[in-house]
C-alpha cells in the first residue's frame, strides 16, 4: 500500500502503474498464449484437413485402380492395353505415396492401428492385382482373385476416412474450448483488476479526504477567531505540507494579533506625540517663511544687477562683432592691393625686358649702318647717296639706343619702387590679419562673458522661482500642520477600532484584551496667516521641488512614536 511519506502524485501513480504493469504482463501472456493456440490450431487444422483429403483419396484411388486393372485384363489389343497399363502404374504409385504420406501424418495409436490395416489391405490388393495380371487372367479371373482384398481395402479406407472426420470434429471442439477458456481468463483478469483498482481508489480517497476535512475544520476555527487549536502533522506528502502551512498560518496570525494589540497601544501614544510635535513644527514653519521672504527679496535684487550686466555684455559683444567685420573687410582690401602691386611689378619687369630687346635691335642696326657706310665708301661716287642714308640710319640707331637705355633706367627705378611698395603693402596685410585675429579673440571673449552672464541670469531666475515656490510651500506646510493634528486625532480613533477588531481573536497564554483608553486630544492651534510672496521679474520654470526632511523631535516619550514622528 502507498506510504504517507510519499507525495500525493506518487501515491496516486503507484497503484495505476502497478495495475498497468499487471495488465501489460497479463495481456502479453494472454496474447502470447492466444497466438500460440491460433498457430497450433492452424497447423492442426491444416494437418487434419490434409489427412481427411488424403483418406478420401486413398478410398477413391483403389476404386480407380480396380477399374483400370479390369480394363487392362479385358483389353486384347496391345495398342490399347499399353496406355491402360501406364495409368495402372501411375495409380499404383499414387496409392503407395499416399499410404507413405498418411503414415507420416498419423499421430495417435488409433490412427496407427487403422493405418496398419489400410496398409496391409492395400498391399494384399496391389499384390493380388499384380499377380493376376502377370498370370494373364481375364476380367472375370482378375475380379475373382482381387475381390476379397479389394473389399477389405475399401472397408479399411472407409474406417480411416470416418476416423479422420471424427478427429476433425474433436479438433474443432478443442479449439472452441480453448477460445472459451481464453475468454474466461480475460474476464477473470478484468474482474481482479477492477477489484484492485477499486480498493486502491477507496484507500486513496480515505487518506486524502480525512486530512482535508481536518484542514477545513482548522480553517473554520481560525475564521471564528480561535487561534489556540493545535495542528497535528503526521504525513510527509502534500497534505502534510498543507498541515504545516496551516500551522504556520495559525502561528503567524497569532503573532500578528499579539503585535497588533501592542501596536494599537503604541499608535495611541504616538498620536499624542504627533499632535505635540505639530505645534512645534508650526512655529518653526512661520520662522522659515519669514527667512524665505527675505532671501527671495535679495535674490530679486541680485537678478536685476545680473540682467544689467548681461545687457551690457550683449552690447559689447555686438560692437566687437562689428569691429571684427570691419577689420575683415580692411584685410580683404589690403589683400586686393597686394595682388594689384604684384601685377604692376610683373608688368614693369616685362616692359624692362622689351626695352632691352629694343636696345639690342638699335645696336644691330648701328652695326649694319656702319657696314653699309663702309661699303658705300668703297663704291666711290656711286655709293655716296647710300652713304648719306647709312649715316642717317646710324644716327637714328644711336638715338634709339640712348632713349632705350634711359627708359630702361627709369623702368628699373620704377620696378624697385614697385617692389618696395609691394613689401609695404604685404606688411600692411600681415598687420591687418593680426588685427583681425585679435579683434576676433576679443569678440569671442566678450561672447563668452555675455553667454556666462545670460546663464547666470537664467540660474538666478530659476533660483528666484524656486524661492517663490519654497515660500508657497512654507505657507502650505503651516496649513498642513493643522491637518496633521486632525490626522493624529483620526489615527487615535483608528487605533481604538483596531483594538476592538483584534480583541475577537483568542491567542494561547492571553485573555481577551479590552480596548485601551483614549488619550485626550490636544487643543488645536489657530491656523497661520499666509504671507503673500513678492513678485519676481522674469521667473524661469523651476524643477519639481524635493520633499523637505521633517525635523526630529528633541525627546520623544515612546520609541515607536519616535519612528512615526521621523516618518511624518
UniProtKB/TrEMBL annotation:
CDD domains for this protein: HAMP (cd06225), MCP_signal (cd11386)
Region annotation Disordered: where it falls in the sequence: 510-568
TM helices/strands, residue ranges: 12-32, 184-205
Superkingdom of this protein's organism: Bacteria
Gene3D superfamilies found in the cross-reference section: Methyl-accepting chemotaxis protein (1.10.287.950)
Low complexity: bias regions: 526-535
Keywords associated with the record: Membrane, Methylation, Transducer, Transmembrane, Transmembrane helix
Cellular compartments annotated: Membrane
UniProt GO BP: chemotaxis; signal transduction
GO cellular component, one term: plasma membrane
Start and end residues of each HAMP domain: 206-258
Protein name (record): HAMP domain-containing protein
GO MF assignments: transmembrane signaling receptor activity
Amino acid at each position: 500500500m502507498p506510504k504517507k511519506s510519499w507525495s500525493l502524485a506518487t501515491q496516486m501513480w503507484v497503484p495505476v502503474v502497478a495495475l498497468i504493469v499487471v495488465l501489460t504482463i497479463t495481456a502479453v501472456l494472454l496474447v502470447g498464449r492466444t497466438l500460440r493456440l491460433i498457430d497450433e490450431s492452424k497447423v492442426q487444422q491444416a494437418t487434419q484437413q490434409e489427412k481427411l483429403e488424403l483418406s478420401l483419396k486413398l478410398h477413391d484411388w483403389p476404386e480407380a485402380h480396380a477399374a483400370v486393372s479390369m480394363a487392362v485384363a479385358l483389353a486384347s489389343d496391345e495398342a490399347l492395353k499399353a496406355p491402360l497399363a501406364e495409368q495402372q502404374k501411375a495409380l499404383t504409385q499414387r496409392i503407395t505415396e499416399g499410404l507413405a504420406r498418411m503414415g507420416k501424418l498419423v499421430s495417435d495409436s488409433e490412427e496407427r492401428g487403422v493405418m496398419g490395416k489400410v496398409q496391409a489391405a492395400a498391399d494384399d490388393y496391389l499384390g493380388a492385382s499384380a499377380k493376376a495380371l502377370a498370370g494373364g487372367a481375364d476380367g472375370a479371373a482378375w475380379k475373382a482373385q482381387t475381390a476379397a482384398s479389394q473389399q477389405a481395402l475399401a472397408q479399411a479406407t472407409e474406417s480411416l476416412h470416418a476416423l479422420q472426420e471424427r478427429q476433425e470434429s474433436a479438433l474443432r471442439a478443442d479449439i472452441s474450448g480453448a477460445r472459451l477458456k481464453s475468454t474466461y481468463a480475460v474476464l477473470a483478469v478484468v474482474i481482479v483488476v477492477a477489484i484492485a483498482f477499486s480498493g486502491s481508489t477507496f484507500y486513496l480517497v480515505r487518506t486524502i479526504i480525512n486530512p482535508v476535512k481536518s484542514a477545513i475544520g482548522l480553517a473554520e476555527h481560525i475564521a471564528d477567531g480561535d487561534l489556540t487549536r493545535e495542528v497535528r502533522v503526521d504525513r510527509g506528502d502534500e497534505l502534510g505540507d498543507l498541515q504545516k502551512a496551516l500551522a504556520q498560518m495559525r502561528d503567524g496570525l497569532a503573532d500578528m494579533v499579539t503585535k497588533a494589540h501592542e501596536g494599537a497601544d503604541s499608535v495611541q501614544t504616538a498620536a499624542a506625540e504627533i499632535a505635540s510635535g505639530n505645534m512645534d513644527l508650526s512655529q518653526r514653519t512661520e520662522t522659515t517663511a519669514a527667512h524665505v521672504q527675505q532671501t527671495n527679496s535679495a535674490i530679486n535684487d541680485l537678478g536685476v544687477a545680473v540682467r544689467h550686466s548681461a545687457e551690457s555684455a550683449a552690447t559689447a559683444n555686438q560692437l566687437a562683432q562689428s569691429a571684427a567685420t570691419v577689420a575683415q573687410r580692411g584685410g580683404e582690401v589690403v589683400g586686393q592691393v597686394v595682388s594689384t602691386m604684384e601685377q604692376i611689378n610683373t608688368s614693369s619687369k616685362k616692359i624692362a625686358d622689351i626695352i632691352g630687346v629694343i636696345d639690342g635691335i638699335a645696336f644691330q642696326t648701328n652695326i649694319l649702318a656702319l657696314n653699309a657706310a663702309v661699303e658705300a665708301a668703297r663704291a666711290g661716287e656711286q655709293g655716296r647717296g647710300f652713304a648719306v642714308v647709312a649715316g642717317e640710319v646710324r644716327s637714328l640707331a644711336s638715338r634709339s639706343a640712348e632713349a632705350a637705355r634711359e627708359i630702361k633706367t627709369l623702368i628699373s627705378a620704377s620696378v624697385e619702387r614697385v617692389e618696395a611698395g609691394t613689401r609695404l603693402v604685404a606688411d600692411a596685410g600681415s598687420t591687418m590679419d593680426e588685427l583681425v585675429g585679435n579683434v576676433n579673440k576679443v569678440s569671442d571673449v566678450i561672447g563668452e562673458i555675455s553667454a556666462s552672464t545670460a546663464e547666470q541670469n537664467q540660474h538666478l531666475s530659476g533660483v528666484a522661482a524656486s524661492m517663490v515656490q519654497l515660500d508657497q510651500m512654507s505657507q502650505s506646510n503651516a496649513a498642513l500642520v493643522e491637518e496633521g493634528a486632525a490626522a493624529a486625532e483620526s489615527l487615535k480613533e483608528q487605533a481604538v477600532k483596531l483594538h476592538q477588531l483584534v480583541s475577537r481573536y483568542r491567542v494561547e497564554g492571553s485573555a481577551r484584551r479590552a480596548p485601551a483608553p483614549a488619550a485626550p486630544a490636544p487643543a488645536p492651534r489657530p491656523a497661520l496667516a499666509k504671507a503673500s510672496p513678492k513678485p519676481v521679474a522674469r521667473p524661469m520654470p523651476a524643477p519639481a521641488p524635493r520633499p523637505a526632511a521633517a525635523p526630529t523631535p528633541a525627546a520623544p516619550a515612546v520609541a515607536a512614536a519616535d519612528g512615526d514622528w521621523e516618518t511624518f
